[in-house]
Every structure is written in structure tokens, then in C-alpha cells.
Amino acid sequence: MPPPPLHIGPLRLSTNLLLAPIAGYCDLAFRTVCREFGGLGLACTDLLSPQGLLRGTATSLDLAKTNDFDKPVGMQLYGSDPEIMAQGARWAVEHGATVVDINMGCPVDKVTKKDGGSKLLTDLSRAVGVAERVARELEKMPLSAEEWAKRLGDARFGTGAAVRGGANVPLTCKIRLCWHTSDFESGAACSPHLARMLADVGVCAVTVHGRTTEDKFAGNVRLEGIARVVEAVDGRIPIIGNGDVREPEDARRMVAFTGCAGVMIGRGALSTPWVFRDTWSLLVDGVTPPAPSEAEIIAMIRRFFVLMQGQRDDRYALFQISRRVSWFAKRLGIQPDGKRVGVKPFKEAVRLARHPEEIHAALDRYLDGGLRTWDSEPEAAGAL
Ligand SMILES: Cc1cc2nc3c(=O)[nH]c(=O)nc-3n(C[C@H](O)[C@H](O)[C@H](O)COP(=O)(O)O)c2cc1C
């Protein structure tokens, strides 16, 4: 049985799979690559500072970059001042957001010290107050049918995202289970209660990363924590599960265990941008398509590099490809018999490249059978 379609307020997504925000990674070039493989229902920008957007700082504007192909897109804001968050949401709507998301899960000091991210989990009235203020601001900005059409994306790559006419951009929140692990273990996590309160003030969906703030990224995702939130909201709004989905089967297990209405994938997509295509196929048809060939993976890496050059410049594209090549190469070197060849020389050639031509030369040499070692090496897991 295919999963029922995922509705976020007035918006119906083409699939129930979402790309997570991963600061420094899920930029426009990467989102484009994921979308081109298919299966992606909604992608999100990395967390954005509303102050930065409103002041027009180069970094914030760059992080918020989107285009007609990059739809539907969520823009994620962080902060704790309701007024500034509302103005940030207004900016997001004026600059192409299909969904506005509030970050209530980031454990990083820089964000929590200013009471944003998962610090909001320690002050629920503040968290709900921010969400309510943003929801009211969005209600003042209904979009025309023509404007909505632009924000639903290219029908060739989706299977029909749709929206109710005259609706406003919906608000979502991304949370963790709670701050302290001991609260979770004693059954006192705030997330079930918080999700209900967010639904009360007009939040249209909540994504739950199944870890506490204290967990940071350690240990395994706590599926029972996500299940408790699903149970608490009782179908009033969709709950999107998140954490540790690396393979299509992980998503199926998450849906079966928690009853979540959608699945958000982050790090799994960094090595496998086609994970949405494969997962959607598994959820709908029960089968996973054959993995892309080596040539297709190399074409994907090249595509990312060229997109990065176009969106920024050669220097930045070289920097980005060098820090991501370990992720991109994780699925390279797998032989038809399942054995692996080493791809360290390939990764080193990419990292050492100082000119775009050297990147293309490394990709070409790999395709020609070079830049690999035949004694298999353990693959580094990537830096995150
Ligand atoms: C380096 C890094 C940066 C992240 N940046 C964000 C962010 O900007 N906003 C956010 O909501 N979550 C952020 N996350 C959390 C992810 O969205 C996701 O919740 C988490 O990685 C668990 O999902 P996964 O196992 O599928 O990666 C970040 C995670 C990592 C590892």
C-alpha cells in the first residue's frame, strides 16, 4: 500500500520524502542534484538568520538562493524574537519560499546562546509564541494561483505537487525530542506536548529529529520518541520523522515503527543523492531501483561542481568539492560482485585540484579506470 500523500497545510507534496537542512551542505547546487534524481517531495534551505536576510548580508542571501527548478522549497529561519522571525518569514515569502520552517532543534552553541534552535525546547511558551506570531504574519500574505504555480516546481520532476488556491505559505517547525536525555528517559520529553501546542497555533507540520539536544548526533535515533509525538498529535497535523535514514529500508522501518507521515533525510543524501528516488520506489512499489552506474555517479559529481561554479565561482566550487568528495565517493568503487576497490587516489586528486580542469581530469581518469587501488580500503564515513 503506498503511503497516503503528505499534506502540509494547503500544500500536497509529490512524495512524502524531504531533504533535511544541513548547514554548509544542502545548498542550491546540492538540492538541484537531489531533485534531478527524483523522489524528493520538499527540500529546505539551511538555517537562515532573519536579521541577515533583512540586512541583506551576502552570506544570508547566498544561503537563501533558490530558482524555479528548486521548488517546492522550505526556507528555515532560526531565532527567538517573534517580531524579527515574523519579518524574516515575510522576507522568505517575498523571495520564493513554498514553506517557512522554524528551527527548534539546532544544538550548536552559537544558536542556542541566543535562545534559538533547540533552546526553544526549554521555554515552550516562547517557542509557541514565536510560531504563533510567524503563522499570523504568513496568513496576511496569501499567494495568487499564478504565484503558487511557480512554487510547486517542475511537474517533470515531481508527480504533481498541488495547492489549494488563495492559500498562504504554510509554517512548519523542526524540533528534537527535548533538551535533557533524562527527561526523555523518564517519559517527560516536551516534544509531544509542544507538537500539540504548535498545531493549535497554526503550524501545519512538525519534523521530529529523534534525538535529544544532549544527544547531539551520538547514538541511534530514538524511534519511540518520534512515535510518541505522532500519537500525541493524533492525526491533526503530519509528523515527519528524521534521523539515521541511510537506506530506503531505514525509512520503511521508521514509518512502520512510528506511524510518521513523512521522512526527512539528511546525511544519507550526502553520499546518496538518489536515496529519495530509491526510497520512494520502495515505499510505493516495494522495490529499489538498480544503483546508478559509476558513470552516472561521476556525472552527478561533475554536475554538482559545474552548478557550484555557476552559482558562485571557481574557487568556492573547488573548496566545496574537496570537502564533499568523501561523501560523494562513498558509493563509488563497488564492483558488480559487491567487492570494493579503493578510491582514495581519486579523492586525493579531487582534493589537490587547484583549477577546474584538474577536477574534470580526475573525473575523466576515474571513468577511464584510473585513480583507484585494487586492494580494498575501509571507506571513511565522512566528516559529519
Ligand atoms: C553538519 C550538520 C548541520 C546541520 N544543520 C542543520 C540546520 O541548518 N537546520 C536543521 O534544522 N538541522 C540541521 N542539522 C540536523 C539535520 O537536519 C538532521 O536533523 C540530522 O542530521 C539527523 O538526520 P540524518 O541522520 O538524516 O542526517 C544539521 C546536521 C548536521 C550533521
In short:
By secondary structure, this protein is of the alpha/beta class. The protein has helices spanning 28-37, 50-55, 58-63, 82-94, 109-112, 124-139, 145-152, 181-185, 191-200, 223-233, 248-258, 267-271, 275-285, 294-311, 314-328, 344-352, 356-367, and strands spanning 7-8, 11-12, 17-19, 42-44, 73-77, 99-104, 162-163, 171-176, 205-209, 239-242, 262-265.
Plain-language structure description:
Helix 1 packs antiparallel against helix 14 (294-311). Helices cover 44% and strands 11% of the residues. With 384 residues, the chain is of the alpha/beta class. The chain has two domains: 7-285, Aldolase class I (TIM Barrel), CATH 3.20.20.70; 294-367, no CATH class. Strand 1 (7-8) and strand 2 form a beta hairpin. The model has no long low-confidence stretch (mean pLDDT 94). The chain has helices spanning 28-37, 50-55, 58-63, 82-94, 109-112, 124-139, 145-152, 181-185, 191-200, 223-233, 248-258, 267-271, 275-285, 294-311, 314-328, 344-352, 356-367; strands at 7-8, 11-12, 17-19, 42-44, 73-77, 99-104, 162-163, 171-176, 205-209, 239-242, 262-265. The strands form two sheets. An eight-stranded parallel barrel has the order 3-4-5-6-8-9-10-11, surrounded by seven helices. It has a three-stranded antiparallel beta sheet with strand order 1-2-7, with helices on one face. It contains 17 helices and eleven strands. The longest helix is centred in the last third of the chain and has 18 residues, at 294-311. Flavin mononucleotide is lined by residues 20-23, 46-47, 76, 103, 105-106, 174, 209, 217, 242-245, 265-268, 384.
